[in-house]
Design a protein that fits this description.
Elements lengths: L2 E6 L7 H8 L5 E4 L8 E5 L2 E5 L12 E4 L4 E2 L1 H13 L8 E4 L3 E2 L2 H14 L11 H9 L14 H19 L7 H16 L2 E3 L1 H10 L4 E8 L19 H8 L6 E9 L2 E3 L12 H9 L12 E3 L1 E2 H11 L3 E5 L9 E10 L2 E3 L11 E9 L16 H14 L3 E5 L7 E3 L5
Parallel strand pairs: 1-10, 1-11, 2-5, 2-10, 5-7, 6-8, 7-9, 11-15, 14-16, 15-19
Antiparallel strand pairs: 3-4, 12-13, 16-17, 16-18, 19-20
Bound molecules: inosinic acid.
Inosinic acid binds next to helix 4 and strand 10.
Length: about 425
Amino acid sequence: MAVDLLLGLQWGDEGKGKIVDVLTSNYNIIARFQGGPNAGHTLVFNGKKHVLHTIPSGIFHDDATNLVGNGVVIDPVIFKGELDKLEEQNIDYRKSLLISRKAHIILPTHRLLDAASEASKGKAKIGSTLKGIGPTYMDKTGRNGIRIGDLELSDWKERYRNLADKHESMIAYYNVDIEYNLKELEEEFFKAIDVLKSLTFIDSEEYIYQAQKAEKSILAEGAQGSLLDIDFGTYPFVTSSNTTAAGACTGLGVAPNQIGEVFGIFKAYTTRVGSGPFPTELFDEDGKTMGRVGNEFGATTGRPRRCGWLDLVALKYACRVNGVTQLMMMKGDVLSGFKTLKVCTQYKYKGKTISHLPYNIEPENVEPIYTEFSGWNEDLTEMSDASELPKALNEYIDFLEKELEIPITIVSVGPDRKQTIFRQQFV
Ligand code: IMP
């Protein structure tokens, strides 16, 4: 059976966690394929908010198996924190949570290196979540990393020491003011490793192959967004993994011809957290309203998110790079009350009008060209059927579908599981 993918089409925070949670009842296995605790997937149900960082968003469903794939990087301390929260809610994760032996481990010194690297960059800093993501993927591609499977080897602590010592000399090389007590950090780290070792480690590509053969349905869950992809995002202001569809193949061991539906999640407007270009960013009251009504604060870092109009040039690019087959529009409710809405359909780029995402989208090169729409005043948050959606919103949606040439099958009108409108049968 083909593996379906679910991924973000903007700069992250599109609402992937909510949709995975909504769709989980259709799947046997939910598999995270990249990223790590830089992600913050928020789920709301029964009046309660839950934030997951590394654990797949299917964990709250009794029947789903949740796999942390080989493309993910795991911080044992944060992972343990997530497990503790699940335990508080009597979620029995022991049977339903599996970890790939090939997933890499974030060491305490990876986090310190992240901080040292950012501090050394000054104004040019990436705006990293400082969770050690970049340094861990650097060690992975540099062939120095420590993997989950290594925890089963007798000499893994020796390997740990060698790598941590090397990191300490690298931190000193940065020559920036970073205070830390590695002994304390290590104490917490090794305790968390012991908890991790009590979970089930698997050869995940074999597991997925056998699951597919047994006709199990699998949903691959992405983290961050396509414009943060290490290859296709706004480099260098990106994360360090492939957040696009190809990342699911390498992050789980699924062959390209085994991919089924590709669900692309986008917000009805755009947000970005951290540094980097953002052509449709708003610095006026409209942007502030989006931030306030949309509660646009990072789920991992609490930082306020930058807000702006929907950018169709960037969205089309993301749809093509991912091969999106169905779209899901999030936070439509946040746009209620705007008199006029704008959608960027082209860029003025170095004096010319262009419709594709160019190499450089820094403000000095790119000026967005907008199409305007009438807004709507209706509160969408209590609506449950597509027939209730206001006319102006339907016009907005129709325009996007026509431009993107992909159906919008779900419109989300609030954070709760229940606030989800299905416009068409989606799988
Ligand atoms: P890093 O992946 O923590 O190194 O962060 C690199 C860039 O990606 C920064 O601009 C972060 O704000 C951004 N980023 C990383 N993870 C997420 C996420 O889950 N949502 C939104 N932005 C993210």
